[in-house]
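This part of the workshop introduces the protein records we will be handling. The structure tokens are whole numbers drawn from a learned vocabulary of backbone shapes. The record below serves as our worked example for the rest of this section.

===
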Amino acid sequence: MSSELSNPAASTLRTDPAWSSMPVVKMRENPERMAWTVLLACFGIFLVLLISVPLAMRYGIQNATAPQTATLDPTQGTVLLFQPGATEPVAITELRKDVLEGSTVEAGDGATQATLRLINESAADEALGSLQLYSGTKLEIDRMRSPLFDMSTEPYQVHLRLDKGQARVFTNSGQQRPLRVEIETPHGSILLDTGSFQIAVTPEQTDLTVSAGSATLSKSGKPDLVVKTGLRAWVTAEGMAGEAVAAAQNLMHNGNFTEPMRDTWESYVIAQNVTPGKVSIMERDGRRVGYFVRQGEDNVPTEVGIRQAINRDVNVYDKLYLQLDAKLLFQSLPGAGYLSSEYPLRVEITYTDIYGKEGLTWGHGFYFRDPENVNWQIVGGEKIPPFNWYTYRSPNLMELLKDTRPARIDSIRIYASGWNYQTMVSEAYLVAE
């Protein structure tokens, strides 16, 4: 019997058209091609990983951030702090260093001032930026970050929302990286460079005044507006200023000490045969300050100060205000001495009145140690909290001095006097309107 007869199934497979037309398995036909395909696919995956992994690592190093905390320092009155997720506020009456992202700070309608210090670059208690908050202000801290890795070139990032009220903002670049501060208001947003700024938010509009540096005012659908030193601009719900305009006339030059002191201020010292005081310019809390210090023999009178010639006619102005920030750190002489003339910090204006009388003066002093002698009266000064920035704004001097109304401002001086003292001044302005 033949093999074909003994295996009919095999004969059927060879002759069945359905089986004879099936495709040939490629791997069996050309295994080398499959091997190359696998090798090339693996090499492609290797290249993708070779490029993407370092890029992903670089992106993480560049953009990864760590949250930071702010320091809230009430100067006057009580400040309310709403912590993240909280519905009830906490009354802040003393320094607090653990203010978190997502917190809201509210200053009451009474006489209230507070300082919010932003990013610290090192372990030292030295902030790169700060905000001075005033009565009726509501501020939300949306974001406050520093790069997680030192290799990152990104700036420190602070994003705030000022819902209402007034704030003065001071920003300064650190040694490692700059500080980027963006403030959002109900009407637009403001991106701040290094400098000092005044921001006021009312239901109708946001006003921005640049004392030093520059800021960019933005609103959706409008071109950005850059506002530089000595200018102001505004934004409302409907639109924004077409260009920045001059702010109120500041008669004092370099009151924020951003320029070399020798170009604008003359320093002087009064000390007879004793250790003299010193005055210098330094950076504190993100701002430039004048620093007055004397550490020597006690119970001896000394004085150190700076003065500037103004020589400006003010007949055409209806309002004249003096404003400055003071910070008292130490005074050994209680009060202002027995003549009420030796303050740890005092400002004095010399002027000529409308009747031509020269050499008239008006001044205001600051102290924090009460007089120990009941006969030592305080005249022309006020007690302020120590160790905190305190903003002073004078009454309208044209009204206050109406009996000898100023016609010309001759000079101004800022000084410290007494025994031993350590004080600071910043953001000094003599504004005429």
